Backbone:
């Protein structure tokens, strides 16, 4: 997984600080790690926005004004309900060899029989939570749908083992659907019309 450097600075937690930071083009954030006190930091809003909307996940080197840096993951982001801009972020420090959980974007490839027959692929999840060591975390997960027929749905528990390569595991419920091949609307309507009517009860 690619590493990105993100300059940060310590901040106080006064009542009006968050608003003042945002007026300066910065976003308040918190960094946590098990066994350590939470650290309150400020991040450049533009740099954070690019990171949040990147198509891949990254390891983030948080670089402090004194020259020290620590590896982290972006764990949570809060958006303004009106402007949709990032207003707060949570990061998590991690150590070498530590087992982590993180969300990774998922993409779907392949043109299976269902698509050839006129079906439409519907991505039901756009990211998956995985567990593993930092060195084994992929930037994104690619899942092949070339075997899927009309009406098929793939669940987390049905993801082929070669996708993980034994390097990480999925933490979601096995029966959670992730992608389906929808039957064309016209064909679905015709199937409904052809279905036999239920006999009326006397």
Residues:
């Amino acid at each position: 997984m690619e590493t990105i450097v993100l300059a940060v600075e310590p901040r106080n937690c006064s009542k009006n600080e968050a608003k003042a930071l945002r007026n300066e083009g910065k976003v308040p954030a918190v960094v946590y790690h098990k066994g350590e006190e939470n650290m309150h930091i400020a991040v450049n809003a533009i740099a954070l926005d690019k990171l949040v909307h990147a198509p891949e996940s990254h390891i983030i080197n948080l670089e402090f004004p004194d020259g020290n840096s620590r590896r982290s993951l972006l764990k949570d982001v809060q958006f303004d309900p009106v402007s949709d801009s990032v207003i707060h972020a949570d990061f998590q420090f991690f150590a070498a060899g530590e087992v982590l959980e993180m969300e990774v974007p998922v993409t779907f490839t392949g043109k299976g029989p269902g698509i050839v027959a006129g079906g439409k692929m519907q991505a039901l999840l756009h990211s998956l939570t995985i567990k593993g060591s930092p060195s084994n975390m992929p930037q994104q997960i690619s899942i092949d749908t070339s075997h899927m027929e009309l009406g098929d749905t793939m669940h987390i528990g049905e993801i082929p083992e070669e996708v993980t390569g034994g390097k990480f595991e999925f933490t979601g419920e096995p029966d959670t659907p992730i992608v389906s091949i929808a039957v064309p609307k016209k064909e679905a309507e015709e199937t409904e019309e052809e279905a036999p009517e239920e006999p009326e009860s006397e």
Summary: The chain has two domains: 3-95, 101-188.
